[in-house]
Amino acid sequence: MTVRIDEDRVFDIIETKRPSTVVVNAPGGLLRQTKDLMARVKEKYGVNCILAGDSCFGICDTVDDEVEKLNADLALHIGHNAAVEFVGDNTYLVDAVDDADFGDVVESAVPMLAGFKRIGVATFSQHLHELPNVKEALEKRGFEVIVGKRNNLMLEGQIFGCDFSTSQPLQGEVDAFAFLGQSEFHAVGLALATGKPTFMLDPHMNEVTDMRQAAEERRKRAILAVYRALDARIFGVITGLKEGQKMLGRSRWISKRLEMHGRKVVQIALREITPERLAPHREIEAFVQTACPRISMDGFNFDRPVLSIPQADALVALLEGRSFGEFLQRPKWIELTVGLVPK
Ligand code: SF4
Fold this sequence. Notes:
Blueprint: E1 3-5, H1 7-17, E2 21-25, H2 31-45, E3 48-51, H3 64-69, E4 74-78, E5 84-87, E6 91-94, E7 96-98, H4 103-113, E8 118-123, H5 131-140, E9 144-147, E10 176-180, H6 184-194, E11 198-202, E12 207-210, H7 212-230, E13 234-240, H8 248-260, E14 264-270, H9 275-278, E15 286-289, H10 293-298, E16 306-307, H11 309-319, E17 340-342
Parallel strand pairs: 2-3, 2-4, 4-6, 8-9, 8-10, 10-11, 13-14, 13-15, 15-16
Antiparallel strand pairs: 1-7, 5-6, 5-17, 11-12
Helix pairs in contact: 4-5, 6-7, 7-11, 8-11
């Protein structure tokens, strides 16, 4: 597998903006290539490059604030491209592309998809360029293939782990989804948000995985956490401090609803929401966190319920005597707060 960072775009930005210091951040899987790129930028242009070394999981993990803190001129956020090329005041998005070919895994998928006629296809940033090829290959095998339309943040067929707004509206038009890439995280999210059978096509292992069981387990765990939180009298409502996940308004809204129903609320702000960070708050019986929803959905080691925004909405529904329905089947689990400038 080779993942290639769009170095030409980086050089263009450097030549146009002529910065003296640049902040760079990238997901863990791209750190080696990113550090190589930083060395080349320094060598070619004499630009001082600083790696922002905190965790970087998504497009929400931009480092606009670090530009000011580190007296830099701009930031480069590597590996999470979108329908925008610049976010916030200082940050340029730089694509990274995986060169994996999907030809073989599409052939492997055909027997598993055989019971379905209309297939939605979706993927994450690094495989977007493969969508037309996969669409054509599946159509040749007799499937009707639909790719979700781009919007103000996402490119055609693109999903994030919390934003399925290109694909979720296809819920009534497709029988199943094919997710392209080696990411159970994204594939499970797609299955939960659409309620459709979802198959993960992994081009590196040439494996096709039916995600239905994994998605159903996550759904049940999410519901169980809501019912466990219903009994809690003291809540911690956590606002995330990462740039693209800061949902202060939502935290206030949820806090107010909980208080209206007799719960005591302690508002907390955190950059990293981990069992270790929550451990000292012993008196709190349940948490709601309005940052990355996957902290709640995929967090297997919290000792108390830690609800995401969709789960908190379900909890509020129960408190108000309503049923919560399929609360995960929505286009977005969080409204990302990255500042957007269209391409
Ligand atoms: S908030 Fe969304 S984009 Fe950010 S890490 Fe979580 S799932 Fe990914």
